[in-house]
């Protein structure tokens, strides 16, 4: 079996570099998230009749998009060796801020007037605020040398508290705006479509491409990897570690804010508990996608696949009617199992390197 | 060596996929056997709470009896998850959705989405703030139940003394309606004094800690009135731990079996029975009728009266429905 595979592979690349057995194995392990994705897809397609319909694929991609957007932001943070636990809370906080801006406007008591910003301004203000929250995370981490886990854990509580305070724990209902204030149309962000595909999916694609280019083609991207690889070495070679950290947490804050807006827009209501525990699914997607929690290794492409694995697994289990408790067990098992593969891969790479050295001798 | 590892990995994947398929309920039988038939989604907040667990179980049993397949889902009080589940049901071509929703305002968009996709929704237990989106909204008469509980609570306390109120989640309409019902009775009695009012978010552990800390400053209370049963159980446990279990009257609200047992054991003193079984069954019957005839023949908003529970009648109810007993030992 193994020999056959090898022969085939060797034949197909005839004339090119000789493909060894270890190369194939390495490919299989490298692409483990992708393989997991294919397995998940095939299993559900066989078990659930409506699974591979166009409408269901669009719906699933829409569900994936939310987590993928958070996970893309999280990838930057984790690549530097950090972590952002405040993601879910910032989602909730921004949802409440946006809801408040639409339903209550900005109250200026000194002037005795209430300003209702246009919908696009609501979006800009909310995104700016989310970015600011992320920047605060980054500033605390970079300037005061607080462990990212602690700093963002603090922000997790603070942002969730602000979400509750904004309307005393109540929901902002019916975010349709009023034509006379020019703030209608907020729902388009979450429910609008282009070519039959939701905006949130387009946003995911756009963000993934931009993030991919930034991480692989820009000096900033190289700095992010450098910090995750060895912070001191990066500092000594002239990387401005502090600024880079502030920027990566700002990116994560920006992504969270965008998700907060999409959620509020989909529901036409903003709820202070929106995004509860969303950070965990985002981290899971990043890790599943092969980014090392220690930093310096991995990338956006893997994260996207990781988000799809988790999302499709979740939706597929729901459609099959698996009990919610089993869903949790299965999701947890898949995440841990994939990370075990991560370790196997690391060990195998070491051995392959040794083997190659010997071959050269 | 490496080969072994691959076989290991592959076998784990296989086991996993078998596990997944093993979890599948035997629901994939050919659908639409009779007129009616098809898939009903039954979505409740979370089956950890026996109230919602029974609600889902009873509704599913009735639906299966009427020849429907069922998909049992939970939204964990998360409106975004609720929307995603409803979208999953749309993708599965469900014929009806039975829903205990995740928020009076936050659920509207999701239910509207189902309606736009041609799937009727039947709400139980919790209302939404708009009419005309769901076909039926069957809720228990929380206000009537709350006044019953409050009257009995006041009678037990001799219509005088200090008490604490634990309210439910602020975002839930039922929390406000119940509290209103309690206060319409208790505030009319001049000697009843509320020394603290706190939310414990419907949660047992939270009720325990809240009462524990409140007892530090109010050890002289005579009663604790709670917005639901799980909080009453938490409060009773905290009182027991402080050695006040027998001196303080505790009122719950829902009629769960746990509280009934606690009542029979002489712990919790008064409760209200939500007619969960009746609501769940009614919702499924109306859904069935709507699917077959295009109308339920009933108004959208329907309320079902609650029953007062005391140690004298607590044994007559199991799983939110009469169990046939006529007297308690």
Summarize the structure.
Chain A has 361 residues and is mainly α. Chain A has helices spanning 2-12, 21-30, 32-47, 54-79, 87-103, 119-143, 148-166, 188-191, 199-217, 219-229, 231-236, 241-267, 278-288, 300-320, 324-360, and strands at residues 106-108, 113-115, 193-194, 197-198.
Write the layout of secondary structure elements.
The complex is a heterodimer of chains A (361) and B (329).
Chain A lengths: L1 H11 L8 H10 L1 H16 L6 H26 L7 H17 L2 E3 L4 E3 L3 H25 L4 H19 L21 H4 L1 E2 L2 E2 H19 L1 H11 L1 H6 L4 H27 L10 H11 L11 H21 L3 H37 L1
Helix pairs in contact in A: 2-15, 3-14, 4-9, 4-10, 4-12, 4-13, 4-14, 5-6, 5-7, 5-12, 6-7, 6-12, 9-10, 10-12, 13-14
Chain B lengths: L1 H21 L16 E6 L5 H16 L3 E6 L4 H13 L4 E4 L8 H9 L4 E4 L11 E5 L1 H15 L4 E7 L5 H14 L5 E8 L4 H14 L5 E4 L2 H13 L7 E3 L5 H8 L6 E3 L2 H18 L7 E4 L2 E3 L7 E2 L2 E2 L7
Parallel strand pairs in B: 1-2, 1-3, 3-4, 4-5, 5-11, 6-7, 6-8, 8-9
Antiparallel strand pairs in B: 10-12, 13-14
Radius of gyration of CA atoms of chain B, rounded to a whole number:
22 Å
Strand order across the largest sheet of chain A? 1-2
Gyration radius of chain A, in Å:
23 Å
CATH class of chain A reads Mainly Alpha
Rough outline of chain A: globular
What can you tell me about this protein's structure?
The complex is a heterodimer of chains A (361) and B (329). Chain A has 361 residues and is mostly helical. Chain A is 72% helix and 3% strand. Chain A has helices at residues 2-12, 21-30, 32-47, 54-79, 87-103, 119-143, 148-166, 188-191, 199-217, 219-229, 231-236, 241-267, 278-288, 300-320, 324-360, and strands spanning 106-108, 113-115, 193-194, 197-198. A two-stranded antiparallel ribbon of chain A has the order 1-2. In chain A, strands 3-4 form a two-stranded antiparallel ribbon. In chain A, a hairpin with a 2-residue loop joins strand 3 (193-194) and strand 4 (197-198). The longest helix of chain A has 37 residues, at 324-360. The two termini of chain A are 29 Å apart. Residues 1-16 of chain A have low confidence and may be disordered. Chain B is built from ten helices and 14 strands. In chain B, helix 2 packs parallel to helix 10, helix 3 (79-91) packs parallel to helix 4 (108-116) and helix 7 packs across helix 8. The longest helix of chain B has 21 residues, at 2-22. Chain B is elongated. The model of chain B is unreliable at 18-34 (pLDDT under 50). Chains A and B meet through helix 2, helix 3, helix 4, helix 12 and helix 14 of A and helix 1, strand 2, helix 3 and helix 4 of B.
């Amino acid at each position: 079996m193994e020999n056959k595979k090898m022969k085939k592979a060797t034949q197909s690349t005839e004339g090119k570099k000789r493909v060894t057995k270890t190369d194939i194995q390495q490919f299989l392990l490298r692409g483990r998230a992708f393989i997991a994705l294919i397995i998940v897809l095939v299993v559900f397609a066989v078990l659930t009749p409506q699974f591979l319909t166009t409408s269901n694929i669009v719906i699933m991609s829409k569900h994936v998009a939310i987590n993928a957007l958070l996970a893309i932001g999280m990838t930057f943070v984790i690549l530097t060796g950090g972590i952002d636990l405040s993601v879910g809370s910032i989602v909730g906080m921004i949802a409440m801020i946006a809801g408040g801006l639409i339903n209550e406007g900005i109250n200026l008591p000194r002037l005795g007037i209430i300003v209702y910003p246009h919908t696009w301004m609501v979006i800009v203000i909310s995104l700016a605020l989310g970015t600011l929250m992320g920047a605060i995370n980054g500033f605390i981490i970079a300037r005061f040398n607080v462990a990212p886990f602690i700093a963002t854990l603090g922000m997790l509580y603070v942002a969730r508290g602000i979400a509750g305070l904004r309307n005393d724990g109540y929901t902002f209902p019916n975010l349709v705006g009023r034509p006379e204030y020019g703030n209608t149309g907020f729902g388009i962000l979450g429910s609008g479509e282009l070519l039959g595909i939701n905006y949130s999916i387009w946003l995911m694609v756009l963000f993934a491409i931009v993030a991919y280019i930034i991480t692989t083609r820009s000096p900033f991207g190289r700095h992010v990897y450098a910090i995750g690889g060895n912070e001191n070495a990066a500092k000594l070679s002239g990387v401005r570690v502090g600024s880079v950290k502030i920027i990566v947490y700002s990116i994560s804050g920006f992504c969270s804010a965008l998700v907060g807006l999409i959620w509020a827009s989909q529901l036409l209501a903003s709820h202070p508990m929106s995004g509860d525990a969303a950070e965990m699914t985002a981290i899971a997607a990043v890790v599943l996608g092969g980014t090392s929690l220690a930093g310096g290794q991995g990338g956006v492409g893997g994260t996207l696949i990781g988000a799809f694995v988790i999302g499709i697994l979740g939706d597929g289990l729901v459609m099959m009617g698996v009990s919610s408790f089993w869903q949790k067990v299965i999701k947890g098992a898949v995440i841990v199992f994939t990370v075990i593969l991560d370790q196997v891969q690391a060990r195998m790479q070491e051995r392959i390197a040794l083997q190659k050295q010997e071959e050269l001798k | 060596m490496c080969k072994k590892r691959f076989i290991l990995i592959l076998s784990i994947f296989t086991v996993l996929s078998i596990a997944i398929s093993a979890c599948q309920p035997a629901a994939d039988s050919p659908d639409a056997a009779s007129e009616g038939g098809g898939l009903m989604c039954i979505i409740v907040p979370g089956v950890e709470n026996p109230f919602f667990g029974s609600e889902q179980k009873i509704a599913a049993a009735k639906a299966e009896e009427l020849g429907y397949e069922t998909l049992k889902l939970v939204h964990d009080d998360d409106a975004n998850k609720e929307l995603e589940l409803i979208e999953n049901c749309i993708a599965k071509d469900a014929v009806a959705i039975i829903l205990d929703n995740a928020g009076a305002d936050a659920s509207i968009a999701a239910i509207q989405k189902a309606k736009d996709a041609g799937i009727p929704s039947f709400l139980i237990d919790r209302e939404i703030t708009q009419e005309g989106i769901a076909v039926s909204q069957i809720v228990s008469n929380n206000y009537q139940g709350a006044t019953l509980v409050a009257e009995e609570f006041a009678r037990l306390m001799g219509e005088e003394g200090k008490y604490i109120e634990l309210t439910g989640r602020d975002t839930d309409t039922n929390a406000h309606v119940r509290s209103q019902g309690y206060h319409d009775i208790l505030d009319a009695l001049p000697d009843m004094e509320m020394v603290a009012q706190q939310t414990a978010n419907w949660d047992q552990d939270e009720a325990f800690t809240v009462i524990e800390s409140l007892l530090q400053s109010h050890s002289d209370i005579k009663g604790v009135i709670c917005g639901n049963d799980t909080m009453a159980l938490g409060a009773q446990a905290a009182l027991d731990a402080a050695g006040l279990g027998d001196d303080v009257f505790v009122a719950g609200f829902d009629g769960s079996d746990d509280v009934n047992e606690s009542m029979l054991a002489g712990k919790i003193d008064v409760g209200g029975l939500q007619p969960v079984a009746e609501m769940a069954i009614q919702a499924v019957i109306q859904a069935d009728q709507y699917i077959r005839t295009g109308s339920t023949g009933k108004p959208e908003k329907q309320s079902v009266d609650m029953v007062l529970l005391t140690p004298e009648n607590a044994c007559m109810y199991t799983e939110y429905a009469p169990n046939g007993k006529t007297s308690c030992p």
